[in-house]
Prior knowledge:
Blueprint: E1 2-7, E2 10-12, E3 18-26, E4 33-39, E5 46-52, E6 58-60, E7 68-73, E8 78-83, E9 92-99, E10 113-114, E11 118-122
Parallel strand pairs: 2-11
Antiparallel strand pairs: 1-3, 3-8, 4-5, 4-9, 5-6, 7-8, 9-10, 9-11
Amino acid sequence: QVQLVESGGGLVQPGGSLRLSCAASGSIFSINAMGWFRQAPGKEREFVVAISWSGRSTWYADSVKGRFFISRVNANNTVTLQMNSLKPEDTAVYYCAAGIVYRDYVGESQYDYWGQGTQVTVSS
């Protein structure tokens, strides 16, 4: 099993920035990708960003491209999500995900492990 712990959520004004972190522990040999999904009230969970275990490949949703940046921190098996120029529509619970992904890195069903989620609220 793999355990994922998210941190870094909070309240920020439009145009501000937040950095989320996801630390993986347990059987990390069983995963080859990590990513972030988000779910706003009344909406379905949607893909945000993903990164291969090597860190050499990344995938971004069009809605966040150029504003959000994902990276791997080798120490503590951690992935970070730097979120800049935040908009009210970015408000959601953000979930870290990990799994063995063969091709579809944006597909929710490809991920086997999920964190508990961290709330991000963008409001003035």
